[in-house]
Amino acid sequence: MEAETAAKRARESEVAAAADGAGEQAGISAVIPGWFSEISPMWPGEAHSLKVEKVLFQGKSDYQDVLVFQSSTYGKVLVLDGVIQVTERDECAYQEMITHLPLCSIKDPKKVLVIGGGDGGVLREVSRHSSVEQIDICEIDKMVVDVSKQFFPHLALGFEDPRVSLHIGDGVAFLKNGRRLPEECSRGHLRCSDSRFLRSSRSCSGAVREAVLPVFKGSVNYAWTTVPTYPSGVIGFMLCSTEGPSVDFQHPVFSIEEDEYSTKSKGQLKFYNSEFHTASFCLPSFARRVIEAKAN
User: Fold this and answer.
1) What is the 3-state secondary structure (H, E, C) of the chain?
2) 27 close to 38: Cβ distance less than 8 angstroms
3) How many CA atoms lie within 13 A of 36 on its CB side?
4) How far is Cα 147 from Cα 119, in angstroms, rounded to an integer?
5) Are 95 and 125 spatial neighbours (Cβ–Cβ below 8 Å)?
6) CA proximity to 192, closest of 294, 65, 43
7) Which of 60, 118, 191, 225 is least enclosed, having the fewest CB within 10 Å?
8) Distance between CA 109 and CA 181 in Å, rounded?
9) Is pLDDT above 60 for 292?
10) What is the largest CA-CA distance in the chain?
11) Which of 3-17, 21-35, 131-145, 174-188 has the lowest mean pLDDT?
């Protein structure tokens, strides 16, 4: 028993030493050694913490600090500039919703562009759609792609699809160089600090909706879902279409969860389904008032 206790203490000391080496900039708490704490001025006064079992990777690319660690409860975790991007346990909520909300709202999408998403998870979900013929991804940071392939192969398998073309570079420049927007462009999603922030007149959901309206002249709608390791546990999605036939984003025209090709190629979905698709557009009363006020 004493030997086990000593071994445990030694292991905790190693984790604490790794945490101290990562430094506060990377988000490893110096106050509670062995714990990762996501502290940011974007959500002042709060922090979500995960216990660190082992630091697997630390690096600094041309753009950001990159950290991967093994947590005790959420599996492996990818952190960029001190902000959690992906955990093995809850990645399905984000990847499946941001992909299938738009793609299941239109009939037979053919071309898809993903801006960002270097972990490959969105690509994995897009590749479930047999109608898609071309998938372009523009990721600015090659280190994110490489780290994902090494530590998150269940996400990075999205890069293996022959329809995928990877472009390393700036997404805005990619679009300015004559690239056309395809059916789904994953270049914008909304992260709210917490539900209280939605209650203010400067709500991020209302502000983003106001900003996209001059650009996207077609349908614009807002959905949300839960991702436990994101600030407040909630993330929003702004769904937009350009001129043309209106898109009823709230009612899917394709049931990906019942599609044989999807299940055979990537297995069963863990989070998204058609009922949840529609439900994700149901907003709390305070959020609905904010968004409706911005629309008028």
Assistant:
1) CHHHHHHHHHHHHHHHHHHHHHCHHHCECCCCCCEEEECCCCCCCCCEEEEEEEEEEEEECCCCEEEEEEECCCCEEEEECCEEEEECCCHHHHHHHHHHHHHCCCCCCCEEEEECCCCCHHHHHHCCCCCCCEEEEEECCHHHHHHHHHHCHHHHHHHHCCCEEEEECCHHHHHHCCCCCCCEECCCCEECCCHHHHCCCCCHHHHHHHHHCCCCCCCEEEEEEECCCCHHHEEEEEEECCCCCCCCCCCCCCCHHHCHHHHHHHCCCCCCCHHHHHHCCCCCHHHHHHHHHHHC
2) yes
3) 30
4) 8
5) yes
6) 43
7) 60
8) 12
9) yes
10) 71
11) 3-17
Q: Which residues of 70-81 are buried (b: 16+ CB within 10 A; e: fewer)?
A: bbeebebbbbbe
Res. 9: pLDDT tops 50: no
CB 127 within 8 A of CB 269: no
Angle of helix 204-212 versus helix 285-295 axis, rounded to 10:
30
Supply 158's token pair. Answer: 């999205």
In this structure, the strands spanning 164-168 and 134-139 are parallel
Ordered by where they begin, the domains of the chain are: 35-87 (2.30.140.10), 90-293 (3.40.50.150)
Evaluate if pTM is beyond 0.90: no
- Identity at 57, one-letter amino acid code: F
> Which residue type does 181 have?
L
- φ/ψ (deg, to 5) at 41: -65, -15
Q: Give the separation between CA 204 and CA 198, rounded to whole angstroms.
A: 7
219 pLDDT band, cuts 50/70/90, is confident
